[in-house]
Amino acid sequence: MHINNVNEKTSLQSIVILTFICLIVTAIFVALYTFSGTSAYSIQGFFEWAVTSFKAVCVGNIEDKVLMWTLFIILPLGLYISLFWAIISRNIALREFSSKLNVKFVDFLQDRINFNFNMPQYNFACGYSEVNKLEMVLKTMLVHSKYGTNIVLKQINLNFTVLNNKNFSISNTPLLPMGLIYKILEYSRYMNNFSYKFEGAGVSEEIREKIENYLQKGNKTIVASQNENKLKLGSILFFVAGLLVLFGTKDFAIILLKDGYGSTMIIIPGILLLVSFIFDIILIINSINNNRFRGYNG
């Protein structure tokens, strides 16, 4: 098992999410542009259409002005600025990480653990019996939604005490955390001492029950996490919706195709199917990396 040292600041997770949202917003604007009936499409024409549309609506009442400012200015700029800021912040964090003596990644092998630093001359290995203690710290946060407030896991910290009481720590931000947690629990059986605790927003009862169930019974029957189940359900829903829209509008698309606008009808179902395929790719990668958890850092 391979675990990269990835914390919240150096993780690609927020960048990937923001990029995905920005692509959806961009696709929506491009779809609106193509539906406008323009005979020739170009980047310059897109911006001219956006300015013309914005001015046309802004001559109306105050509600329309607020709506257009939100849709055409505040929302897109806010998303793209957030994406650029996330990229810059991660690069700064990576430089700070590389400038210090930190564990870069840890390899759990069959008979030993390899500790690899960002300065290779400090790399070393030790047997599982030489690990005096492994503490797993599960950092949680509160997430608010229309369904209520939930405690979710945002980061896993591993604190090692090895050999002559040397202490090393790594952190990880896995996309699907339960797979990584189960692997850590498996390898902890070969160590002298193992413990875990929750920090942050409190104890996630769902995760605690899974950990205790595995420690006491070795039972992995509930290995699938809520996030994984949501991805599977989302993939099915987006795929079905994409097919329904595609076949439901095919006759209209044929009519528009004769007028040169048929391609516009493919954009919406295409986006829905693309989202479904992205979810499938994430699930496939998680399955392939069943024994190899790098954290969501690329």
Instruction: Pick out the low-confidence regions.
Output: 290-298
Query: Total domains, how many?
Result: 3
* Largest sheet report: 4 strands, antiparallel
Q: Give the radius of gyration.
A: 25 Å
Descriptive terms for the model:
PH-domain like; four-stranded mixed sheet; about 300 residues; about 20% strand; elongated; 3 domains; about 55% helix; four-stranded antiparallel sheet; disordered C terminus; alpha+beta
Descriptive account of the structure:
There is one protein chain. The chain has 298 residues and is of the alpha+beta class. It folds into 3 domains: 1-100, no CATH class; 101-217, PH-domain like, CATH 2.30.29; 224-298. The chain is built from 8 helices and 8 strands; from the N terminus they run βαααββββββαβαααα. It has helices spanning 13-35, 43-58, 62-98, 177-188, 205-217, 226-248, 250-258, 264-288; strands at residues 2-4, 103-108, 113-117, 124-126, 131-145, 148-162, 166-172, 194-200. The strands form 2 sheets. Strands 1-2-3-4 form a 4-stranded antiparallel sheet, with no helix packed on it. A hairpin with a 4-residue loop joins strand 2 (103-108) and strand 3. Helix 1 (13-35) runs antiparallel to helix 3. It is elongated.
